[in-house]
Design a protein that fits this description.
The protein is mainly beta and 125 residues long. 0% of the residues lie in helices and 46% in strands. Strands 2, 4, 5, 6, 9, 10 and 11 form a 7-stranded mixed beta sheet that branches. A 4-stranded antiparallel beta sheet has the order 1-3-8-7, with no helix packed on it. A hairpin with a 4-residue loop joins strand 7 and strand 8. The termini are far apart. The relative contact order is 0.31.
Length: 125
């Protein structure tokens, strides 16, 4: 068992806020995180959270985004503030087969085994 499904993607203006939600049934004991991919770009790490609630953020979103586990919904949410056009892309929820998020000093999409289908975020200037 185990399912990941993203929701909350939308079109917003620069400076606005948006909250994404990842339904993560069966992942209470796993690292769950968010990645994004813009057209013509590689998929990149955004934020992750361990099974104990310790959060990691990429340099580009640190201080603007906040990841959290919402136990009542069995979800992992991503609150995005002060959005920039460069934040645009398809946002994916993913999980590792372990509780921790870091492997060999990095958080890489290839270390995550379970993936949702994605939700689109578009930030207009």
């Amino acid at each position: 068992q185990g399912h990941l499904k993203e929701s909350g993607g939308d079109s917003v203006q620069a400076g606005g806020s948006l909250t994404l939600s990842c339904a993560a049934t069966g992942y209470i004991d796993r690292c769950v995180g968010w990645f994004r991919q813009a057209p013509g770009k590689e998929r990149e790490y955004v934020a992750t959270i361990t099974s104990e609630g310790y959060a990691y953020y990429s340099d580009s979103v640190r201080g603007r985004f906040s990841i959290s586990r919402v136990d009542a919904k069995n979800s992992v949410d991503l609150r995005m503030n002060d959005l920039r056009p460069d934040d645009s892309g398809m946002y994916y929820c993913a999980a590792r087969p372990y509780w921790n998020c870091v492997a060999y000093g990095e958080i890489s999409p290839r270390r995550f085994t379970d993936w949702g289908k994605g939700t689109q975020v578009t930030v207009s200037p």
